[in-house]
Design goal:
alpha/beta; 5 strands; 40% helix; 20% strand; globular
Length: 127
């Protein structure tokens, strides 16, 4: 079953890797290059899943976007997977406190990304 996935990542190569990983499934994939654009895309597309970078340029980072999306039921309560190079325990704790459903360290393998998404139960089911 198709689901809408929004990739919010400022590095084009990482967006491309994620898109290529997910294209084998029947997903509707959208992309944003920063959190501000990502928030507008969430409001427009109502994705079931956000793949969200933490460190991005702009007026807010991924943690702030995660907090905003998770605190606004009108945005559809999507699953959020944080993607980041920040792997200290306090970074992971901050991500989970912001409302993330999963935390994936860069660099990650395509298989690990798919396993993480599947572990959320998003395959064919909205939260």
């Amino acid at each position: 079953m198709s689901q809408r996935i929004l990739i919010i990542e400022d590095h084009a190569d990482i967006r491309r890797l994620i898109r290529m990983t997910l294209e084998f499934e029947d997903h509707e994939i959208h992309e944003a290059v920063n959190a501000d654009e990502g928030l507008a895309a969430v409001q427009q597309w109502r994705p079931q899943l956000l793949l969200l970078d933490v460190m991005m340029p702009g007026s807010m980072d991924g943690l702030e976007l995660c907090r905003r999306v998770k605190s606004d039921p009108a945005l559809g309560c999507p699953w959020v997977v944080l993607l980041t190079a920040r792997g200290q325990s306090q970074d992971i704790e901050a991500g989970m406190m912001a409302g993330a459903d999963a935390y994936l360290l860069k660099p990650f393998s395509p298989l690990k990304l798919i396993e993480t998404i599947n572990s959320l139960g998003t395959a064919g089911a909205a939260p």
